[in-house]
């Protein structure tokens, strides 16, 4: 394998990661909106565990935006403080990996 092949491989991995994060954040945002709509209608709700796991998997921006746009889960301390904490940890991890 040549150096050129390795750089192409890393670029491909970066692209896959960006697509993964974009899709996950869109899904997380949409689920926060869907859960808020269901709450207003008294319908079956999305479990809080799901709404917390998605930000842990990389959807923290979508979760924070979903909380702000839909005014959803803003009274729960573990959402209000947990999602920004998750985002900060993910950002710190990204900076660490990029600085290596």
Q: What does this protein structure show overall?
A:
This protein has one domain. It is an all-alpha fold.
The largest sheet, given as strand count, sense and whether it forms a barrel, is: none
Written as H for each helix and E for each strand, in order along the chain, the element string is HHHH
**How far apart lie the N and C ends?**
22 Å
The rough form would be described as elongated
The number of strands is 0
Tally of domains: 1
Q: Helix/strand/pairing class, anyone?
A: mainly alpha
Gyration radius, rounded: 17 Å
Helix content: over 70%
Task: Give a brief outline of the structure.
The protein has helices spanning 3-41, 48-70, 77-80, 82-99.
Secondary-structure blueprint of this entry?
Layout (H helix, E strand, L loop, with lengths): L2 H39 L6 H23 L6 H4 L1 H18 L1
Helix pairs in contact: 1-2, 2-4
Highlighted features:
0% strand; mainly alpha; 100 residues; elongated
């Amino acid at each position: 394998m040549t150096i050129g092949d390795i750089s192409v491989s890393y670029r491909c991995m970066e692209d896959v990661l960006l697509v993964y994060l974009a899709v996950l954040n869109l899904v997380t945002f949409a689920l926060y909106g869907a859960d808020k709509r269901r709450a207003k209608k008294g319908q079956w709700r999305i479990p809080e565990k799901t709404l917390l796991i998605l930000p842990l998997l990389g959807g923290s921006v979508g979760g924070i935006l979903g909380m702000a746009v839909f005014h959803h889960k803003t009274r729960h301390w573990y959402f209000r403080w947990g999602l920004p904490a998750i985002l900060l940890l993910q950002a710190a991890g990204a900076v660490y990996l990029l600085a290596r």
